[in-house]
Amino acid sequence: MFMNRRAISIRNRWSRVGLALALAAGVASCSSVSRETTGSVDRNAKPIAQMSSSELERVALKLGQAYSKKPSDKATALRYAAVLQMNGSSDQALAVMRKSAIDHPKDRDVLAAYGKALAADGQFEPALQAVRRAQTPEYPDWRLLSAEAAILDQLGQRKEARSLYRRALELKPNEASVLSNLGMSYVLDGDLKSAETHMREAAAAPGADSRVRQNLALVVGLQGRFQEAEALAQQELSADQAQANVAYLRQMLAQQNAWNDLKKEDKERSNTN
User: Fold this and answer.
1) In whole angstroms, what is the distance from residue 177 CA to residue 217 CA?
2) Per DSSP, what are the bridge partners of residue 32?
3) Which residues form the signal peptide (predicted)?
4) What is the Cα 90 distance to its own chain's centre?
5) 81-122 confidence digits (pLDDT tens)
6) What average pLDDT score do residues 139-159 get?
7) How far apart are CA 145 and CA 171, in angstroms?
8) 96 close to 104: Cβ distance less than 8 angstroms
9) What CATH number is given for 1-22+173-260 in this structure?
């Protein structure tokens, strides 16, 4: 089993190489952007999570131009921040959403996206406050419950987080993003068997996207089943990216095993002295 810090380290490296983790998925209300028009929603456009780096850059440029002309426009700000986040520009995404939260202080979509941007920047307590402000107890939103749970997971509050994930699943049964987030909760605890169970449910659920299936590949790889992990990853990534991810996992597992061996030897020497 990995220590929490080791699991987080591997998870972050895996994400940088090519796998986008699904933690807090579903917080922002806009999941697709038209590549033809900067300010309009196109139901048939490719989802942001499925865009290549070059596509994300083109869309970010167009949305940036639209945002500069009308920064107070809620829809443009939400889509622009979502694209920036996927493109790795978390600081810029946070700046966009911070201004939008000032412009729309009571808007649930804006507060939720602001919370997501704060969480991505590591500001978990403010993120939690923003997401809770966006929630309405009489009409709870499953997306916000899942987002709040993901933030609580990052704060180490596993029991509270999993309770919220299950409440979210009561409102939205078999929702892939929530099941995946629940699986990642167990990854953070080092319980990879439970994590895999939930990840497989998530990957089989209707609407499961690339991030969910990539998370399954990560969990399988963390258990040392490298060939299976690489096969799963190649369904979503290029062969080179999948191989790079698995090579890194092999290296990290080897380091973890070497560290455990050293600790065992130290303990044995102490007992003989």
Assistant:
1) 15
2) 47
3) 1-30
4) 13
5) 999 988 888 899 999 999 999 999 989 889 989 998 998 888
6) 92
7) 10
8) no
9) 1.25.40.10
- How many Cα neighbours within 13 Å face the side chain of 225? 14
CB 237 within 8 A of CB 18: yes
Domain ranges within the chain, ordered by starting residue: 1-22+173-260
Write down the residue that tokens 């806009």 correspond to. 30
Q: Is the pTM of this model over 0.90?
A: no
Note the helical H segments in 87-225. 90-103, 108-120, 124-134, 142-154, 158-171, 176-189, 192-204, 210-222
Sign of CA dihedral 259, 265, 271, 273: negative
**Residue 226 near residue 250, CB atoms below 8 Å:** yes
- Map tokens 């941007």 to a residue: 117
Q: Is the dihedral of CA 115, 70, 29, 207 positive or negative?
A: negative
What is the chain's alpha carbon radius of gyration, rounded to the nearest angstrom? Answer: 20
Cβ(153)–Cβ(198) below 8 Å: no
Contact 152, 182 (CB under 8 A): no
**Backbone φ and ψ of 144, nearest 5°:** -70, -35
Q: Coil, helix or strand for 26?
A: coil
pLDDT recorded at residue 21 = 42
* Tokens coding 176: 């892939």
Residues 6+ apart with CB under 8 A from 98: 114, 117
Q: Count other C-beta atoms under 10 Å from residue 214's C-beta.
A: 27
Taking the CA of residue 185 as centre, how many other CA atoms within 13 Å lie in the half-sphere pointing to its CB?
29
Return d(Cα 247, Cα 73) in angstroms, integer.
44
Tokens of 180: 């995946």
